[in-house]
Amino acid sequence: MGQQFVVENRAGAGGNIGAELVAKATPDGYTLFYNTSGVTIAPSVYPKLSYDLLKDFAPVVLAAAVPLVLVVNPSLPSRTVQEFVAYAKTQNGKINYALSGTGVITHLAGAAFIKEMGIAATHVPYEGSAPAIADVVSGQAQFMIDTINTPLGFIREGRLRALAAAMPKRSTLLPEVPTFHETVMPNFEMSAWQDVLAPTGTPPAIIERLNLEVNKAVQSADVRAKLANQGAEPFGGTVAEYAAYLRSEITRFARIVKDANVKLE
């Protein structure tokens, strides 16, 4: 665009700190919120937010998504997701599911999987993916669902076994791993997607220009290569398509949070 972009990382509270800053920003197109799917989970797990996702933000575009993958400790007698479900049901709840955090996309994916399969498992929350994966590798926990890029090295080394990916088609990074859709959960898809939002009141012409530029960027060879290295799939699309997707994700995650009784400690 011929403009300098300054990335200002405002981490914390599941992305809510960054969201609060942008929600209050001048709606002139110069302050944007590049966030993840966590923004659509927040309304269901945080009882008091200082912003309203649908009222305070204007959707711009869905940029990319990192699919989730189910991994298990390779000592388990399960080489397929079907075998793992059968094995887990024999354990009478004596199986640990490692969480990279509470109320995040990987937690909800695991909760949906466990409920759908009728598995009894103990949720063990960690402060991040690294310690969670370490305990699955060591056998302290038996399985977890995480973004595909995080456990990839352990999978390739044989220290974790990948059983299923939560995406419509197989990942180019792990083409040998089937999808949930192919195996035990038809139409199950969940990813850590990334998008762009602007403060409500941003002129429509600016929204459309930003949408156009992000679409051009995610189709460029260099950006697609960088996304592929992270296990991410490029998306793009229209403002209207993303607005509809945003609302559908809010509804879907609210249902999962309620069904699984997910609460922040």
Blueprint of the fold:
Layout: H1 16-23, E1 33-36, H2 38-45, H3 53-56, E2 57-72, H4 81-89, E3 96-99, H5 105-117, E4 122-125, H6 129-138, E5 143-147, H7 152-157, E6 161-165, E7 191-199, H8 204-219, H9 221-229, E8 233-234, H10 239-260
Parallel strand pairs: 3-4
Antiparallel strand pairs: 1-7, 2-5, 2-6, 2-7, 2-8
Spans of 5+ residues with little confidence (pLDDT < 50)? none
Span from first to last CA?
Answer: 43 Å
Strand content: 15-25%
Count up the helices. 10
Helix fraction bin: 25-40%
Q: How would you describe the shape?
A: globular
Give the C-level CATH assignment of the largest domain: Alpha Beta
Overall description:
The radius of gyration is 19 Å and the shape is globular. It has two domains: 24-65 and 191-260, D-Maltodextrin-Binding Protein, domain 2 (3-Layer(aba) Sandwich); 66-165, Periplasmic binding protein-like II (D-Maltodextrin-Binding Protein, domain 2), CATH 3.40.190.10. Helix 2 (38-45) packs across helix 10 and helix 5 (105-117) crosses helix 10. With 265 residues, it is an alpha+beta fold. The protein has ten helices and eight strands. The mean pLDDT is 93.
What is this structure, in a nutshell?
The chain has 265 residues and is α+β, with helices and mostly antiparallel strands. 40% of the residues lie in helices and 18% in strands. The N and C termini lie far apart (43 Å).
